[in-house]
Amino acid sequence: MPSPAEKIDIEKTRKIAEHVFDLLGGALVSAMIYLGDRMGLYQALNGAGALTSEELAQKTGLHERWIREWLYGQAAAKLIDYIGEGRFELSTESALVLANENNPFFLAGGFCALPQQMAVLNQLPESFKSGIGLTYDQLGPEVNRGVERLLAPWFHTQLVPSALPKLDGVVGKLQSGAKVADVGCGSGVALIEMAKAYPRTSFHGYDIAKIALARALNNAMQAGISNVTFHNARVDPLPGDASYDFITTFDCLHDMTRPDLVMRAIRAACTGFRYSVACPRRCRNQAVWVWARSDFPNRWRARWSLKRASPASQRAISRIRLTRITRCVRSA
Known about the structure:
This protein has 332 residues and is α/β, with parallel strands linked by helices. The protein is 44% helix and 13% strand. Helix 3 (53-60) packs across helix 4 (64-76), helix 8 packs parallel to helix 10 and helix 12 (259-269) packs parallel to helix 13.
């Protein structure tokens, strides 16, 4: 309790309490989005028009009483529309975000790892005491899958047709044949999309997470491509022989413990580099870093702000000669 002499701003306290309560409500809504994605409820609503809870239960084979509560909760959260007379509808716009995984607006996939992500909280008290964090593998397979589903729609729909053509000369080089690396490749979705589009180019993915690399190998096998190789960077690191023509990192450099060392290794692997930064529209504070050799006439002006980077990334950037950094652009 405050001391008698301390004056309390009740209105400010009320606003803070409301904000915290909203955050708690958001956590609960997130849990319902997870269930809607996992149980196929958004997919069942997509294009079905206005349904009652009974109709949706019959369509999905689930219990009507639970479906009814979920529908009312989703309508209260303004994720689906209440039409009246007990009927609910998923709008075309909401379907793009919650049901249609083949478009860049899709976000529901990012919720699929929610239970496993929350379970990690049980391990974090020890990290707060020791200062030692968890490896990506310790987060579990569902977290790997969640990150893949969150980023994959952009890779599938924007990387090859929209992002790469903005890098002058890159597409032509990839078409004729080049050597490309993706550092922090994760499950390999970005590399696989590029490998399918440019079969004459050799693609190499580097990561230290065993779960992600296993997913990457499986994804490449399912895609039926042979021009992609994945490397465990702990035992097979990026070579410092300036042999790569094009190196990318997508949404990972800012999470690394030593981004400065990684950037130095990238520079050694790719000589005469040019430097650009892009940002997928949905990931406003997360950068896509692109290096290209000097034989790429890279005049694309990526706009980005250093203040969006972690302090470690800022220090690393300041130690490396950059050809061009302006303010941040979001890919269309």
